[in-house]
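Why does residue order matter? Because the sequence determines the fold. Keep that principle in mind as you read this record.
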Amino acid sequence: MASNDRINMNNSLKKIVVPHLREHGFKGSFPHFRRKNEDNIDLITFQFNRYGGSFVVELATCPKEGVTMSWGEEVPPNKVTAHDVDDRYRLTEDIKESSETWFNYENAKNEEDFDLVASRVLSLLHVSDRNWIKNLFK
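Structure:
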């Protein structure tokens, strides 16, 4: 069962980040989102630390047909997630320090604190540019 802090963080992400993703064409349900483009699918997945207190946002792209796993299983376009793709990018606030990819909410005490973390994530998601995720891999 998720801790209260995890539930509060989920609620803030759903309140602040998810509506923005939907505005820009992303479908899916928390924590996995996808957006079909002309030649690919953009993928965003929120992955929480199993020990609590932090999460990463993983970005990926895949062909518009979905992906075929190494063992032959086909994942269709409406089910594919960033976890199904080997080449992923972790959203970070500090490009120079690529190891700092975890968004920490360990010290959050109230709704405003959780919302602040979600707002930091939102400020880094440049999803209004439909080529943004694809360009991260060039």
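The helical segments are 4-16, 18-23, 111-124, 132-135.
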